Amino acid sequence: MKLKTLVKATLTSTVLLASSMSFAANIEVNANANDLAIKGYDAVAYFTESAPTKGSDKFTAAHNGAIYHFSSAQNRDLFKADPAKYAPQYGGYCAMGVALNKKLDTDPTAWHVRDGKLYLNLNAAVQKKWSTDIPGYIETAQGNWKDIKGLTVGQIAKVYE
């Protein structure tokens, strides 16, 4: 094999690997097809307003491959200063779902802040079940998240069939 061909093959392989790794990072965050997290709700407002608040595309920040919207520049700046403090747990997937080894979508109005962390749930009914043992479900979800965070929904289904 010629050196030039070997270099091209190596470069191509490197680009493909980097591309697939960047895709893998995105499966750790629950975002829509446009990479929008929390369906456009302001992650900081759950803490500062104690309410789900729709964000605006005028105030955005990127974190872990997703785009977050905020209701104000101040909230955006708070998020940028410490995204881990405000971003929802488990990449914004349903906390109860993670406790059950699943990656489920969420309803931004089904939320709970506990010990300074934001947890989202699939819907109000799931949140009601989650509320029956929040510490226990968090403990279970913490362990499960380590195993499923880098997996697609399809991969999780195959592992837990």
Walk me through the topology:
Layout: H1 3-26, H2 45-48, E1 56-63, E2 66-70, H3 73-81, H4 83-86, H5 95-99, E3 107-114, E4 117-121, H6 124-130, H7 134-148, H8 153-159
Antiparallel strand pairs: 1-2, 3-4
Write up what this structure looks like.
47% of the residues lie in helices and 16% in strands. The termini are far apart. The protein folds into three domains: 1-29; 31-87, no CATH class; 89-161, no CATH class. It has a two-stranded antiparallel sheet. It has 161 residues and is of the alpha+beta class. The chain has helices spanning 3-26, 45-48, 73-81, 83-86, 95-99, 124-130, 134-148, 153-159, and strands at 56-63, 66-70, 107-114, 117-121. A hairpin with a 2-residue loop joins strand 3 and strand 4. Mean pLDDT is 88; it is low at 5-25.
Short description, anyone?
The chain has 161 residues and is an alpha+beta fold.
Please state the CA-atom Rg, rounded to the nearest Å.
18 Å
Low-confidence parts, pLDDT < 50 over ≥5 residues? 5-25
Main sheet makeup: 2 strands, antiparallel
Order of helices and strands: HHEEHHHEEHHH
Number of helices: 8
In terms of DSSP E residues, the strand content is 15-25%
> What is the distance, rounded to the nearest whole angstrom, between the alpha carbons of the first and last residues?
45 Å
Share of helix, binned: 40-55%
Number of E strands: 4
Q: What's the mean pLDDT score?
A: 88
Strand order of the largest sheet: 1-2
Number of domains: 3
